Amino acid sequence: MINKIKNGLLFIILIVFVYSLVLLFKNNDSSSFNRLIINVDSSFLDKTFIENFVSKEISSDSQNINYNELENKFSSISHVKGVAIYKDLIGNLNIGISQYDPIARIISGKLSGNYINNEGHIFPISSRYSKRVLLLHLNDEFSNDKKMISSEFGKDLLEMINYINNDKFFSKIISEIEINSNKNIVIHPQFSKQKIIFGYPDDLEEKFEKINLFYNKIVPAKGWNTYKTVNVKFKNQIICDKS
Predict the structure, then answer these.
(1) Which has the least CB within 10 A, 3, 23, 70, 169?
(2) Tens digits of per-residue pLDDT, 117-155?
């Protein structure tokens, strides 16, 4: 009796094992999948775009789906930072897309028409999505993204942009940054007419503290548009000019 029970259990285990193998091979079959599961934020590429992209790359009569090749095609899209494509144990095709997050938009110079992210990566604007960010006037010295990332000035400028975006006050009042041929920076505020001459993007704490002092002490006493320029580039000085 005990042997019959053992044999019965072994038979059931064998059936379950064989069924599991069949199911595993079926789900690992790269020629089909059950459902398409997309994990992506709704910025440059949304779920509809990805669904259409997949349907174009994988036709209904596809005999084999090359997931590595599909990942490479997604990676070639300029707004894609990272991609992971895999088939789960129940046969669903999972696609995860991470995208570049812009912190500034370049609106002049040879790199005009591009965004830049907090790591210095430059990528094009899109007709599908637009984000309100700091506007950046670059001179033609920055003719390619490599120079923007690798140069000391580029790194310092990026640090300054991140500083502005991470500050609740300055991220609201500063709308544009202009870089002239001498690498001097001029800040264009959003709510007042004066230009703020910042100079080289260094000594950030000190210079922004002087800008903060101007808006919190001088403006309430003299008015928003009394001065045409405010110069904070020199150490321990704030030079306000009406002309």
Answers:
(1) 3
(2) 988 889 999 988 999 999 999 887 776 665 566 788 888
Rounded Cα distance, 152 and 156, in Å: 6
Sheet holding 80-87, edge to edge: 36-39, 93-99, 80-87
Contact 78, 102 (CB under 8 A): no
- DSSP codes joined into one string, 151-200: SHHHHHHHHHHHHHHT-TTHHHHEEEEEE-TTS-EEEEESS-S-EEEEES
Residue whose pair of structure tokens reads 């960010």 in the numeric block: 133
Give the Cα separation of 113 and 169 in Å (integer).
27
Go through the domains of the chain in sequence order and give each one's CATH number: 31-99 (3.10.20.310), 102-241 (3.40.50.11690)
